[in-house]
Amino acid sequence: MNISRYSIFLSALLLLFSSCSGEPMPVLDSEGEQIQNFRLKSTDEQLTLDFSPPLEITPERQVLQLDMSLPDADLLAEVSEPDGDEPARRIPVSIPRGMSSGRTVLEYQLSAEGLSEISQIVLRKHADGPESTAESSAESSPARSGQEDSPFTSLLAFRLLDDFSALEIDDYRIRMPWYLSYNQRLLTMDGAPATGTETGAGPALNVYQEAEISSLMDDFPLLDYVPVIRLGYEYRKPEAGMPVRGFQEDEEAREFADPLPPLARVDLFSGESGAAPFQSFELRLRPGQQSVYLYPEMFSQDISAIRFTHDSVHGRMRALELLSIPRSPTVESPGPLPPPLPMDLGMIMNYSRGLWRNPEMELYSWNLFPQVLIIDFRDYELQARYLKRLAYFVEKEGFRGELLTNAQLAGRHGWNAHNYHPRDLSRFYNRAADEGFPLNEEELNLLELLLQRGILTENGGEYLEGEGQIISITDHPLQTEAARRLFLNHEALHGMFYNFPEFRELSTQLWNGMEESSREYLEYYFSYVGYDPEDSYLMINEFQAYMLQQDIVNLRWMVQSRMAPRILRRFPALENFVYGNNVDTGWEALRAGEALQTLIYQNYGLTAGDLFGLVPWEGDAEL
Description:
alpha+beta
């Protein structure tokens, strides 16, 4: 489920006030269009919101969120339905543990109350509610002896959200929204959010949200299911865009702003509260509402709590869920492999082969683009039995469009890693079916997987394009970690190319806008690698991946110094052309790489050479 797709933010930013006369305030949709008004009244003892016409509660508007400055006191919310015969509904609310008076966010799950419309919301201080209200407040709120009551001082924003429904991965799931069983600490300074301490590692981290999750693992059926903790978070991109580190100058005095991914820290705790985390991760925040996934089986200790530390202005945790994914194919999800494990690319690098559900391969889905399936093979040989014939049919110069026999493929190299669009997969399997061509058992297993996951569909014996793509890497024992990282980044960029139209358009513009000699230089290199330069779509796709598979600072060196001798290995007669154009091509590549990186960073928070979002924390033990 793509949460951002279903969420609606209806916000009205109000001026600070100590009391309000009830002037109408606009409610805006996500496009800034006014959809209705509400009137707000505030006194020292209560805050009232009147809606006219009544506020409709829909599946996309199920959670009320108030971003406000609150008194340090127990509160009671009263929600009224229009023209209702029943008395106003009362929802008990307490300030979360550890909060002092100051800015906070309170949320109420309206859908749980069965409401369809709301005419009024009233928040009262120390209101006389049901006996259960006082009891629940006493249990969940710390003692506040010696503190004077404060009035309501401001309402900063009013929003309606969806309820972040559980992912439909399997029937067995436990849902834990961020606003339940939840502790938050907001560091403040003179009544305003503290700025924290700026470090070279990134922006200030001054807020933490912590959730106890030890009870989630009770009675979990570990034998049949893999436990997965989904951490949902939101990062609101600043109006100025994603942050950058500043400027670097090269010898031509051109300036390029280095991306500075906004950071959060995810700490895992075991045992009693107060202990130091046993594992910490750096989370590079992506714009919008996103999900990352933690796998308890990766760790030697049980997880009792998770802490999310972040920039209080732009990022926060939204949900924690315990999900279950089958270890084996099921009746509901038949096929050669069980359903994919949703995972960040950084976690794939750290996911032990000993945890694989199939000893020959593991199947993942990219958390940022879930339609991209990632097959991790045990070694190059197994990968070749699945994909080498496909590689020659789709991409190899001199063989494109041909089905080679096993004897013809013997001794030939495929690719170290692969990527395929359903368009090419359907052509391959349709050609084999039309010609009665004998495919390997592994290739038939791949076809079954593609049909199972909807990447291909079948109609009357014809294989049609579906939704999604596949990429592959290996965990070959002789492969270095650096090579595995490079291959995963490169293939993931192809996954982006398939799913990000603006990225395809910019890649095409940059490729076509290069000097003809620079395009020819790169085409010679792609020919050396084995790609067919007659396929313009393939050239553009490989162009963007080679521009972004490494840090931008190393791009010009790669094009000028590394590509040149490789081109000459295959085309020794081109020495004058190669060394007459490698410098200019290097500069053109650098400009293209900078433009591509700006696009993927501002839209997805991704940086060249490092598409990983969740990686082990390498900073100091304490923030």
